[in-house]
From TrEMBL:
Record-annotated FecR protein domain positions: 123-219
Keywords on record: Membrane, Transmembrane, Transmembrane helix
A Pfam family assignment: FecR
Transmembrane segments: 95-121
The name this protein goes by in its record: Ferric-dicitrate binding protein FerR (Iron transport regulator)
Organism: Dyadobacter jejuensis
Secretion signal span: none
Keyword Transmembrane helix: yes
Example GO molecular function: sigma factor antagonist activity
Domain Protein FecR C-terminal: 265-333
Length: 338
C-alpha cells in the first residue's frame, strides 16, 4: 500500500477525524521502527498545541469553602451566655465520648482505605536481591529490580487508562495501542513518565532518580518548587534528578547497559566504592560501613555477573583487595593486612 503520511494527517488522527482506512494506514506506518521517532515528535507537538482539559479542582474547593464561610450565623454574638456548671461537666464527658468515637471512625476509615486499595490495585513487590519479570494485561513487559514495588489497577487497565505507580527501579517495554493510549509511570519522587510504546528504565529511590530511554520517545513531567517542567527524551538520553529535582541530561552511546541488571549483569565504568555501596543498599538492603574514607575513591571497571549479594561482595573484595565482614544486613569494609 502506498503510504503518504503527513503531519496534517497525523494531527487529524490524534483529534479522531480520520477514516477507518486512514487509521489502518497510520497504524501500519507507526509500527515501523524507522517512523516511530517522527510519530512521537508529532504527538508531542500536537499535545503542546492542544493540551487536554484539566478540571479546576483547587478553584472549586476554594469556592466551596467561601460559600460555607459566607453562610449566616445560627446564633447572635451579642447574646449574653450564663455559665452552667452541670452543662460543662456533661460537655467534658461528651467530648471524651466524641474522641473515642472519632478515633474509632478514623480507624475504620483507615481499614476501609486499605481494603479498598487492595481491591482496586494489584501490587508486585521484590525483596532484597530479587528480580521479577511480569507481563501486564496490555502486553507491556516490566522487570522489577530488588527492593522495588509496582502498583497496577486491577480493573480497567488498558481500557480507560494505563497508569502504574513505581517505587524503586524497573525496566519497561511498553506496547503501542491502536488508540494511542498513553502509558504513565508515577513515582513518589514528584515526577512521572509518559509514553506510548517504547523501552526505558526508571530509577526512583531515596538518594535520587533517573530515566534512561532505549527506544521510542518519552516525556517526563517534573515538579519543582510548585512548578512543573516537561522534559522530552530521545533514544540514548539519560535524565538524572537529585532530591531537589534538579536535572542533568546526558546522551549515552549504549543506554542498554542501564538495564543489564535484568540478567544479573553489572557494567562498571570507573565505578567508585561509594557508588558500589549505594548499589548494595538499593538492590540488597545492605548497610555499608567503611573504616577508611580513602577507600571510597577506589574504582572498578568491567562487566561482571553476580546472582546474589554474596557473589557481588566476593567480586568487590577480590578486585579491590579488600576485607569484607558481613553480619546480617550490614558489612564492614577495610583494607587487607599484608
Amino acid at each position: 500500500m502506498q503510504t503518504n503520511i503527513t503531519k496534517e494527517l497525523i494531527f487529524k488522527h490524534f483529534s479522531g477525524r480520520t477514516s477507518f482506512l486512514q487509521k489502518q494506514m497510520i497504524d501500519e506506518w507507526a509500527t515501523d521502527l524507522n517512523n516511530q521517532e517522527l510519530f512521537y515528535t508529532w504527538l508531542d507537538e500536537y499535545e503542546q498545541l492542544y493540551p487536554e482539559y484539566t478540571a479546576g479542582l483547587d478553584a472549586a474547593v476554594e469556592k466551596y469553602y467561601a460559600r460555607i464561610h459566607s453562610a449566616p450565623a445560627s446564633f447572635h454574638e451579642d447574646t449574653p451566655v450564663q455559665p452552667n456548671h452541670s452543662a460543662a461537666i456533661w460537655q467534658r464527658h461528651s467530648f471524651a465520648t466524641w474522641l473515642v468515637a472519632a478515633s474509632t471512625v478514623l480507624l475504620l476509615g483507615f481499614l476501609a482505605f486499605q481494603t479498598t486499595s487492595f481491591w482496586l490495585y494489584k501490587t508486585y513487590q521484590t525483596t532484597a536481591g530479587e528480580i521479577k519479570s511480569l507481563t501486564l494485561s496490555d502486553g507491556s513487559q516490566v522487570t522489577l529490580n530488588g527492593n522495588s514495588l509496582l502498583r497496577v489497577p486491577r480493573w480497567g487497565f488498558g481500557e480507560h487508562s494505563r497508569k502504574v505507580f513505581l517505587m524503586g527501579e524497573a525496566d519497561f517495554s511498553v506496547t503501542h495501542t491502536q488508540s494511542n493510549q498513553k502509558f504513565i509511570v508515577e513515582t513518589s519522587k514528584q515526577f512521572d513518565v509518559e509514553v506510548l510504546g517504547t523501552e526505558f528504565t526508571v530509577f526512583a529511590r531515596e538518594r535520587g532518580s533517573k530515566v534512561v530511554l532505549n527506544k521510542g520517545m518519552v516525556r517526563m513531567n517534573v515538579e519543582k518548587e510548585n512548578t512543573k517542567k516537561t522534559i522530552t527524551l530521545k533514544p540514548g538520553d539519560k535524565v538524572t534528578l537529585d532530591n531537589a529535582n534538579n536535572e542533568a541530561i546526558q546522551h549515552l552511546a549504549h543506554p542498554e547497559v542501564h538495564s543489564k541488571w535484568k540478567d544479573h549483569r553489572f557494567i562498571f565504568e570507573k565505578t567508585t566504592l561509594l557508588e558500589l555501596s549505594y548499589i548494595l543498599e538499593d538492590n540488597y538492603g545492605i548497610d555499608t560501613k567503611i573504616d577508611n574514607k580513602d577507600l571510597l575513591d577506589l574504582t572498578i571497571s568491567g562487566a561482571f555477573t553476580a546472582h546474589s549479594d554474596d557473589e557481588l561482595l566476593d567480586l568487590i573484595s577480590n578486585l579491590l583487595d579488600l576485607n569484607i565482614i558481613k553480619k546480617d544486613k550490614q558489612i564492614i569494609i577495610s583494607k587487607r593486612n599484608l
